[in-house]
Amino acid sequence: MDRRSWKLFFCIFVTTLLINQYFSPSVEFDSGKTAWKESVQAQLKNLETLPSIQDFPLIQLIPSGGSKILGVDIDGNALTLATNVPMPQSLQIGKTQAFLSYVNETKEPVVYRTNKNKLQIEKLDLQEGGLCYIAHQKEGETTPTLTAARKVRGEILTAQDVLEDGFVFNKACEFIGMFDARYQKVRATQEYFRLANEVEVKKKAPYPLYVLENAYQMLVFSPEGGSLAEINLPFKEGKNTKSVVQKIDVDRSMQANHPENDLFPTAPYRVIEEGTTVTKNPKEGSYYPLLRRNILGKGGAVLHEIAPQYYCCSLQESGEIPELYEVTRFEKSLIEFRSTGSRRKIIKRYFLPDDPEALPYVFFLTVEVEGAPDKLLLSSGIPEVELVSGYFSPALKYLTRKNGQKQVHQISLPKLDEAAPTVLPEGIVPQWTVNSNGFFGVIMDPLSYQADAIKATAVPGKEACTRMTLIDSAYNLHPASRYPGYLLSAPFPAKNRAEFRIFAGPFEADTLQKIDQTLIEANRGNPEYTKAQSSHGWFSFISAPFSHFLFLLMRLFHAATHSWGLSIILLTVVMRLVLYPLNAWSFRVGQRNRTIMPQAKKIQEKYKNQPEKAQMEMMKLYKETGYNPFMGCFPAFIQMPFLLGMLDLLKSSFDLRGASFIPGWIDNLAAPDVLFSWHYPLFYFGTNFHLLPVIFALVTFLQQKFTMVISGADEGPLTEQQQQQKMLGKVMVVGLAIAFYHFPSGLNLYWIFSSIFGILQQYCMYRFRPKESDLKKS
Q1: In the prediction, which pLDDT does 51 show?
Q2: Cα–Cα distance between 160 and 182 in angstroms, integer?
Q3: Which of 208, 218, 383, 396 could potentially form a cystine with 411 if both were Cys, beta carbons 3.0 to 4.6 Å apart?
């Protein structure tokens, strides 16, 4: 390929890379770290043999009742491994009397010696790079399983995730510690049991749930921390609802394949009806879970539990488990909690607005503290995972006001196992903070004080599990480790009383504007919640104005057609009309340049053995005729802001989420189309076939062919350069199909019709093109 072809190919490659980067997850992944992890896991996976399970000092203990407990015999002591079967309350291990203590509701047993309830085993001898083996027992199996692992950079890496706790042995089959599956770490025995015991002591039994509900939201409260365990948003098609939330494929999958996780709330709850407290069973479907919540198994057993410190509006010291509260007041639209602890007295009062239509998805919180409120943090909760155009895109933001100007700032997502306190510059006052999953979020708006710092914390995905892990779980299509959770917390004020207005719902333009307008009319200021769905990135200063312009046009078309798909098609027509003068000028330049092609071919044939001479003659010809080979790229460069604006529109417009165009094929314009699906995931393609990117590639191919016809490039034998460009065009078509494969159907729809209208436009311009004599004069 010549230099010009390489430049063209490089431009295409960079453009595709930028588009993919624009739609890539906002989570900062360390590519180097991913590489060495994959390398280690590949080595472990390819181990020829594993030691026999009989080589390890494991014993089978059979207590009364006949339940089997896998154990390890170390110096006469015995430890147990989780078996998820009914366990006795006590058992005899040799000469040592021990008792069982359940860690959580999944009935994972831990054995303690009766000697002061302590285990004296505390071995932990695993060097960096050391090979080890994890002995664990999978649910439903009666024999233990071995998994090879290696310690690399402080992490225990396995060929695949080990979801069960287990015993860790070195290469000599010597016991060295306990494997903590929650954090993928090896812990000393005493530390392991200490952490397990802390969980057991605090979590003795399920607590009753209380519900406040209106047409826009179901708020589910727990006495643990007096906080929100769930925030569920009704779907648009539900009865007595004015919600704007549409069902998408994830919701349908939960309903069809995991009905136990399509219950709202996840357990029976108490509600006020006709002035009386009534206990009700969970409702089936009809809600979108805004927060991550417990994952249930068959029969209602809790498989993954969300700890109360991750609930919304949890008030606690950093790292502590929230204390218990008692309900002191419960009404139709109000609930009041009072702490039962001795350190300080806390009253938390939640209430719904009197007119929910004026303030949709909004509720209020008042907190009163008796005692020192310092070190207390109020958290946002962890939003459920929402895939925006197929990618995980959480965002943490805050709005500030300085010199009368308001601006939204994005917080860099913290790494796991570390909290990143954001200390605000002097003079910068945060008006509110937002924890978002892309299309939904929680806006914490303090009304009576202003925070001077914000704390962002990352939570491992296995600790705050998402319902996405249930989809094709047999193939581990969405592993929990891929979706860490993020908490935003703000320090409680020095004074003992604070009020909050909290928005928990969709970032839909009309909804946010209605709230802003309501508060302005009530003389409560303008919170500008509409800025919560702001654009951030390298090109946001370019894309944002164009995105806003395109969105206004699209909404205008939607008002006329009541179809977002038709609105996108009409938008392409308008864009083609707006850009017609530019495209017409480009066509005219191309037609004028066509007149010099015969001269260029003669020069190439005459000096085919003298490339330097040929290049000099070509440059001379270009100068005499005013031909610029790069002018053809100018229209594409001018259209880039509109492309970025369209990308930004599809990333941020809630209206397109769940919007159907062709039912059964294009059911969500903000996600890729699905023509048909399969279960086994294929590399890059996943489990769905998307047809629109293929159609887009074919239309682009036809457009290239038509462009060659009207430009005269196919007249006569092709030069070597033209052959290379033709081949490059074919490669580009395949590259576009791959690059656009996971893009939202709305974007593919836009480019398909843009290309079709482009062909029609080129045909019209070619049909009524000026004569060659006029071109030479121009």
Answers
A1: 83
A2: 14
A3: 396
What is the tens place of the pLDDT at every residue in 654-672?
899 999 999 989 999 988 9
Cβ neighbours of residue 649 closer than 8 Å, sequence gap 6 or more: 547, 550, 551, 554
* Least trusted range by pLDDT, from 72-81, 384-393, 450-459: 72-81
- Tokens read off for 496: 């003992």
**For residue 556, pLDDT beyond 90:** yes
**The pLDDT of residue 24:** 44
CB 278, CB 251: distance < 8 Å: no
CB 176 within 8 A of CB 192: no
**C-alpha angle 95-97-102 in degrees, rounded to nearest 5:** 140
Specify whether the CB–CB gap between 105 and 95 falls below 8 A.
Answer: no
Q: How many residues does the chain have?
A: 778
Query: What mean pLDDT do residues 573-597 have?
Result: 74
Q: Cα separation of 202 and 321, whole Å?
A: 8
Lowest mean pLDDT among 60-69, 150-159, 253-262, 619-628: 60-69
Give the β-pairing of 485-491 and 686-689.
unpaired
User: Is the confidence at residue 736, as pLDDT, over 80?
Assistant: no
DSSP-derived pairing of the beta strands 315-317 and 302-304: unpaired
Of residues 535 and 412, which shows the higher confidence score?
412
Strand pairing category for 269-273 and 209-213: parallel
Residues 349-366 have a mean pLDDT of: 96
Q: Identify how many contiguous H helices and E strands the chain contains and give both numbers.
A: 15, 40
Half-sphere exposure of 505 (CA within 13 A, CB side): 31
In DSSP terms, which residues pair with 111 in a beta bridge? Answer: 100
Q: Exposure pattern of 716-727 as b/e (b: 16+ CB <10 Å)?
A: eeebeebebbee
Question: What is the token pair recorded at 183?
Answer: 């954090």
pLDDT band at 620 (very low <50, low <70, confident <90, very high): confident
Which residues, 6 or more positions from 736, have their beta carbon under 8 angstroms from its beta carbon?
A: 16, 693, 696, 697, 700
Strand partners, 278: 271
Whether pLDDT at 224 is above 70: yes
Query: Using CA atoms, how far apart are residues 138 and 414, in angstroms rounded to an integer?
Result: 33
CA-nearest of 152, 148, 144, 145 to 171 is 148
Beta strand extents in 114-242 (DSSP E only): 131-136, 145-152, 155-158, 166-170, 175-180, 185-187, 209-213, 218-222, 227-234
Q: In what order do the strands lie in the sheet with 69-74?
A: 58-61, 69-74, 77-80
Assess contact for 688 and 677: CB atoms under 8 A: yes
Cα separation of 557 and 567, whole Å? 5
- Taking a C-beta distance cutoff of 8 angstroms, is the pair 14, 6 a contact? no
Single-letter amino acid code for the residue at 418: E
Distances (CA, A) of 317 to 196, 230, 305, 556, 661: 21, 21, 21, 49, 49
Max distance between CA atoms of the chain, in angstroms, equals 109
Contact (CB, 8 A) for 400 and 388: no
